[in-house]
Structure formats: C-alpha cells, structure tokens
Amino acid sequence: MITAIFGSVELGIIYAIMALGVYLSFRVLDFPDLTVDGSFVTGAAVAATMIVSGYSPITATVVAMFAGFIAGCITGSLHTFGKINPLLSGILMMIALYSINLRIMGRSNVPLLNSDTFFTNIRSWWGNTGIDEFLNNIFSTIGLGAFVPRTWGIIFIMLIVTFAIKIITDLFLKTEIGLAIRATGDNKRMIRSLSANTSGLVILGLGISNAMVAFSGALIAQHGGYADVGMGIGMIIIGLASVIIGEAIFGTKTIAWTTFAVIGGAIIYRIVVTLALRVEFLETGDLKAITATIVILALITPKFIDSYKDRKRKKQKMLKLGSLQSANEKGDQRATFNTD
C-alpha cells in the first residue's frame, strides 16, 4: 500500500504540470480547452519518436513543449480569427491532433523500453550520490524499509522541475502581459475597450497552457516507457479534477497559493485513485468512473459544507437574537414591577 502511494505521488507531481496548464486555460482564461486530450499525446509522441531516432531526451522534451505550444496557438486562432465557439475549437483541434499524432509516431504505439530517457538518466546519476542509501536507512530504522521507492531521485527532481514551472507561471501572471491575460479571462469586453489585443492574449495563453500539457505528456511517456495514441483520453477531466480538488482543499487566496493548490490537488487525485483501485470490487477499467466520481464529489462537497456553515451561522444568530429579546423582556418586566 505505502509503495503504491509513493508511486502515485511520483506520478502526481508529473501530472501537476499538466494540471497547471489546465488551470491557465480553464481558470485564468476562462476557456474550456479540450485540445488538452490531443496535445498531451502530441508531447508524448514527439518526445518518444525523437528519442527512438537518437535525439537526447532533453532536446526531445523541449521540442515536445514547442509542438504543444503550436497546437494551443492553432486552437486560439480558430476561436479568435475563425470566430468558432471555444468548446468546438478545442474539440476540432483534439480530433485533428489524433491523426497528427499517428503521423508523428508512424504507428499507434512507440515503446521506449531500451532507450535512454530523462528518467533513466536521473536514476543513473542519482544512484551515484548515495542519497537513496541514506534515506532508505532512515526508513528502515522506523520499520518502513520494505516500502521505500526504487529511487528517490525522480520525486526530488520532479518536485524541483514542477515548482520551477509553478514559480515561472506565478511571475509570468504578474507581468504586464500576464495581468492582461488574467483580465481577458475576467472581462474580455472591458480589456478590448482599453485597446488591448485580446485575440493575441488568448492565443498566447492557450499556447503556454498546451506547452505545459505537452511537457507533462513527454515526461509521462518517458516515465511509463511508451507513447500511445490513446493515452490522452480523459486528460482534461484529470486536469479539472486536480484543479477543483486543490481549490476545494487549499483555497484560492492568491495566484501563487492557487498554483500551489493545483499541484497539491494533482498529487491528492493520484493518491485517491490509487486507494480506490485497491478496493476489491473495483477494476482498472473503472478508472474513468472513479475520476468522474472524484470530480463530482469535489464539486458538490464544498457547496454542502458552505450550506451547512450558512445554516449553522443563521441558527446561532437566531439563538443570539432570541436570548437578547428574552433579556429585554425580563428587563421590561422588572422595570414595570419597580414602578408599581
């Protein structure tokens, strides 16, 4: 069980980059971008194909990000210049990317089992540092030696990479262009009245969002050892689940806190899915139903909690008013008695 949770934390950190991209399009730009299901695979397909062709994993991952950026820009152009509904723009791009991803890979699946990837390089480098032995000794001392992950390197390096992307996103959203993108998501008509180019801002925002998604897809392909044309199905739901769970649990006080919440939500989502699949009557094929259930619970639960708190607050207020009224009536009765 604990070993599985370590694995889900590892995956959650990688998927958090995709969730940050979904947060940028869904929350900041207020754009329901279904391109994510296709651009995630595009990132995986480009990275896997280039690695198999002999390119370095870092070069392949950077090119995968650029491919995702182009896909997002095309979706933004379909919406802004083609005047196509945001939802339909994303669906059209997602369908087109399915064929494009097949063209990139040349087949439906590209295995990476015998290739050097970003994570095999981390494992070989991290193994020489001696940090694994040090941490494993600590866990063995407290009786958890049998549950430690194969290497701590992936968790540590991916935490650094994910938080670096989070910090860059926070800083970008505080720049003049970032503030304009946020304002476009809040009120596009008002920003347009200030002579801002909202079309360019939407295209740029969707490009950055899908670059993050493709980056996550490239890393997931290298982590899992393959790229598959069907691996992106339901990614938008997973991203939304991460955003909604993170916001519900951690809140949305500031942009920096919200992006932190999204990362936390992605990790919690993976842990919940892992625990759910441990239930005897659930199978791997039930994963989509589990995801839908988690999203529904994440959407409904905060409203029930707010409603309960509101009723409790009103009840306390009524009790307080009742006690005050009772005290006033008693005071009036004493005054009448003294006067008599």
Describe the structure.
This protein is mainly alpha-helical. It has helices spanning 2-28, 36-52, 57-80, 86-105, 118-127, 131-141, 153-173, 176-186, 188-193, 198-224, 235-250, 255-277, 287-339, and strands spanning 109-111, 226-228. The longest helix has 53 residues, at 287-339. The mean pLDDT is 86. This is ABC transporter permease. It is found in: Cell membrane. It comes from Sutcliffiella horikoshii. It is a multi-pass membrane protein.
Write the layout of secondary structure elements.
Blueprint: H1 2-28, H2 36-52, H3 57-80, H4 86-105, E1 109-111, H5 118-127, H6 131-141, H7 153-173, H8 176-186, H9 188-193, H10 198-224, E2 226-228, H11 235-250, H12 255-277, H13 287-339
Antiparallel strand pairs: 1-2
Helix pairs in contact: 1-7, 1-10, 1-11, 1-12, 2-3, 2-4, 2-10, 3-4, 3-10, 7-12, 8-10, 11-12, 11-13, 12-13
Membrane topology: Multi-pass membrane protein
Organism: Sutcliffiella horikoshii
Keywords: Cell membrane, Membrane, Transmembrane, Transmembrane helix
Short key terms for the protein model shown above:
340 residues; mainly alpha
Brief overview:
It contains 13 helices and 2 strands; from the N terminus they run H-H-H-H-E-H-H-H-H-H-H-E-H-H-H. It has 340 residues and is mainly α. The protein has a two-stranded antiparallel ribbon.
Q: Can you count the helices?
A: 13
Low-confidence stretches: none
Q: What strand order characterises the main sheet? A: 1-2
Shape: globular
Number of strands: 2
Radius of gyration, in Å, reads 25 Å
Q: Indicate the multimeric state.
A: single chain
Q: How much β-strand is present in the residues?
A: under 5%
In round numbers, the mean pLDDT is: 86
In whole angstroms, how far apart are the ends?
79 Å
Indicate the structural class.
mainly alpha
Describe the biggest sheet?
2 strands, antiparallel
How helical, in percent, are the residues?
over 70%
